[in-house]
Amino acid sequence: MNRLQLAAELKKILPAERVLTGDLERKVYSYDSSFMARFRNFIPDAVVLPLSTAEVSAVTRLASKSGIPVIPRGAGSGETCGCLAVSGGIVMDLSSWDTVEEVDVANMQVFVRPGVVHYKLNEHLAGYGLFFPPDPGSTRMCTIGGMVANNSSGLRAVKYGTTEQYVLGLEVVLPDGRVINTGGVNCRALKNVSGLNLTKLFVGSEGILGIITMIRLRVWPKPKARGIAMAVFDDLEKAPAAVLEVYRSGILPSGIEVLDSSAIKAVNMYNPEINLPDREAILIFEVDGNPAGVEWEGRKIAEVVGKLAVSVEWATDPKRMAELWRGRSVVAVAAARLRPDGSRIFAGEDISVPLSKVTETLRRIKELGKEYGVTVVNYGHIGDGNIHTAPVINLDRPEEVERANRLVDAIHKLAIKTGGSTTGEHGVGAVRNQYARDEHGEAVEIMKKIKQALDPGNIMNPGKLLPPEGGRGFA
Amino acid sequence: MPEELLDLKDLYLRCVRCGQCRSVCPVFEEVRNEMAAPRSKVFLAHMLANGEIKASKEAVSKLSLCLLCRACTRECPSAIPVHSLVMAARFLLARRVPSPVKKLVLRRIWTRPSLLALSVEIFRSCQKLRLFDIGISSRLLPPGFSLPGKLPDHVAQDLIPDVTPAAGKTKLRIGYFLGCSTNLFFPQIGQITSAVLSRLGCEVVLPKDLKCCGLPMLDNGEGDLVGTLMSANQDAFRRFGVDTVVTDCASCAAALKEHSTLKVLDFSGLLIDLVKSYGRDLKKIQKIVTYHDPCHLSRALGITDEPRELLRLTCSEFREMPGASGCCGGGGTFVLYNYNISMGILNKKMSSVKETGAEAVATYCPTCIMQLRHGITKNKMDIAAVHPIQLLYQSLCLN
């Protein structure tokens, strides 16, 4: 089927304005936020914007019959080319399908379509005194569908875990167009251990097994109070020790973030007004809960961390909290300021290591940066060992790009060697699938069998998550 | 001068395509596909500069999908002035894929006040002959042509003297930059502006040879003209020995501030100061009023508090509308090219206005007023869209 025929077939399923086939219309679907997408032309043959399960199913059936890849996409805020047509096909932009179908307050759950944006869901839930706890940095744009497909998390994973802990059930369109419900057909129970756990299988499957068209999410009562503690260290080593002390004192903060000296420097260059203390490391603790508990925990954190830190400040005043948090909130962007001609790239940005290895890993990444001659900024969720590394390079220099690619490869290998993972929350996509065998060994063969069983024609988001046949894939 | 795309390389390379701009773009909210997302325009600008996409009619049409409201510029975590990139891309496209009609209107007619006045005469005659109605209903003209409504019989320039003395002691001698919109479509607002300033102690100078501020040109890829237009305007005021000006139009204010050497005072701030030293109390109008932030005032110039304060001084009740800072969808000439999208954005604005229960919606931009009036008519609402100066005029009992 050529592109014109495909467009005509798709227009039989969806109204013409929701089938995009123009050159530029397809081209703007060639990127996400990943580094790799900058250098590739992953242009789809067509883009569709379905607004019903029936439309998704019909498009998938057509694709299956004709052997055309289907690539589901949310807001395209990912870092892994996960939503890009790496071998052509139909990109299915689900971001406009954004209805909150039902807030079932009595059963503490909500039913949403895949395109609902994270912060909008939480705004909606706030009206009921509820919230959906996982809190990605991309809250302003990322979709719940994308979060589920990538099992994403964020700043509050220390206490609240990742998306998978909240998914009670899914409606999924399979590659052949069939529609299934996981977690029970009419189930509204919070616990259900019957059957194989297909919900867990689809969460984090990055669109290679089917397309998620409805999500049944567990929601929680929204905490009434929040506080922030910022601790400054003259030795990076003391930061994880302080985290451990906080855990030992019986406190589970909702977030524990670290900025190392590179990040501190970047933030101060970005905005001197923020004026972070120029030391080796800064930890920012967030606690939430009821007001009395939050106050007690904050004081306790200040006490135990104070023994290791140069200084600790505890705040519950919203203005001061925002100020303390400011350094962390701008660091991702501030990184680029370390050099005037630099751009921050999203590659090797999301490794996850054992808590006991965080310091060692941060040091090793710094060394690797020197080795490859690439400026790196480190920050991340130290509370769960998830490190964000931001390489800063001049994108115009192919030689620098090449060095950055080698650095990224070394960072990924370091993560695996350290007993961690190449990705803690952003996913595999087409940028980390070459490490699948190193990370999972023989288990990869089982993953492939599952994929084959559900998608024998390999039309669902091919080239992602699983190792590329016989080589390094697109990297 | 608009910038050349290649000179803005550092800006478009900085875009990590995170997509945060999707959360604030009124056009994206309406169109709901990536083509309308601000980052796609940064991407297209990048591709155009690199020669990876050709300057084409499709590129012109896709890059027209931007109101230049600057919501994304404000939101961008990488601090990319997306609107500047869009303007630079349009500047490049206007040279490579020129539109003869646009060139004629923007370069030949709009730059010459006498020709512009003549065109308005012709426009008015066509209106009287109902040619626009016929044109729109037969789809020869875009529906946006109905926006100005019935054109007034006179332009403001003909109704206001070049120097209006202060009523009483002269506190301030100030230039009044009469923008095209007020001049052609709302001459009454122009007259009132000059009358109020005079009453509050200003000698108001309005040179007869003012030209356009250049914003329509900047928006449409003909921004190389802005320098010439601005120096003509600077000269016009200097001939009267004036270098401090005000304007009742938020868009002109932003253009003057960004592209001229004139000192531009915030209109509402000045009015508040003048009212405070006026010595007599204002008579509050018994009206519930709400306020719409023009993009060029709130985002380009960062002025949001003073207009509200003035409304509180003049009206018995001020009510904030939800999303007051959201664009009304007018976007200068945007409504001409993208009428349906513009109306979608406008409808949301009108529901916000409605929600307040206000009897008047005030705003500092004549183009926004035009758009809001269109929304009022379309939605059959019983509410007035006014310029705050009209309310102040009433509370000074000048009517």
Low-confidence stretches of chain B: none
Overall mean pLDDT of chain A stands at 95
CATH architectural label of the largest domain in chain B: 3-Layer(aba) Sandwich
- Strand percent estimate of chain A: 15-25%
Structural class by sheet pairing and helices of chain B: alpha/beta
Task: Walk me through the structure.
The complex is a heterodimer of chains A (475) and B (399). Chain A is of the alpha+beta class. Among the domains of chain A are: 3-93, Uridine Diphospho-n-acetylenolpyruvylglucosamine Reductase, domain 2 (2-Layer Sandwich), CATH 3.30.43; 100-221, Uridine Diphospho-n-acetylenolpyruvylglucosamine Reductase, domain 3 (2-Layer Sandwich); 224-334, Alpha-Beta Plaits. Chain A is 34% helix and 20% strand. Chain A has helices at 3-13, 23-27, 53-66, 118-126, 144-150, 157-160, 198-202, 238-248, 261-270, 291-306, 318-334, 358-372, 398-417, 436-440, 443-454, and strands spanning 19-20, 46-48, 70-73, 90-93, 100-104, 109-112, 130-131, 167-173, 179-182, 211-218, 220-221, 225-233, 255-260, 281-289, 311-315, 343-344, 351-352, 375-381, 386-393. In chain A, the strands form four sheets. In chain A, strands 12, 13, 14, 15, 16, 17, 18 and 19 form an eight-stranded antiparallel β-sheet that branches. Chain A has a five-stranded antiparallel β-sheet with strand order 5-6-10-8-9. In chain A, strand 5 (100-104) and strand 6 (109-112) form a beta hairpin. In chain A, helix 8 crosses helix 10, helix 9 packs across helix 11 (318-334) and helix 12 packs antiparallel against helix 13 (398-417). The radius of gyration of chain A is 23 Å and the shape is globular. A five-stranded mixed β-sheet of chain B has the order 1-3-2-4-5. Chain B has a four-stranded parallel β-sheet with strand order 7-6-8-9, sandwiched between helices. Chain B has helices spanning 9-14, 26-31, 38-50, 57-63, 71-75, 82-96, 100-109, 113-128, 131-137, 180-185, 187-199, 215-219, 226-238, 250-259, 267-276, 295-298, 305-314, 334-337, 339-356, 366-378, 388-395; strands at 163-164, 172-176, 202-205, 244-246, 263-264, 285-291, 315-318, 360-362, 384-386. Chain B has four domains: 5-96, Fumarate Reductase Iron-sulfur Protein, Chain B, domain 2 (Orthogonal Bundle); 100-146, no CATH class; 156-272, Rossmann fold (3-Layer(aba) Sandwich); 280-395, Rossmann fold (3-Layer(aba) Sandwich), CATH 3.40.50. Helices cover 50% and strands 8% of the residues of chain B. In chain B, helix 20 (366-378) links the parallel strand 8 and strand 9 (384-386). Chain B is α/β, with parallel strands linked by helices. Chain A binds chain B through residues 20, 22-25, 27-29, 31-33, 37, 47, 49, 75-77, 93, 95-96, 117, 119, 138, 140-142, 330, 332-333, 336, 341, 343-346, 395-396, and chain B through 9-10, 13-14, 16-20, 22-23, 32-35, 37, 40, 43-44, 47, 53, 58-59, 62, 75, 77-79.
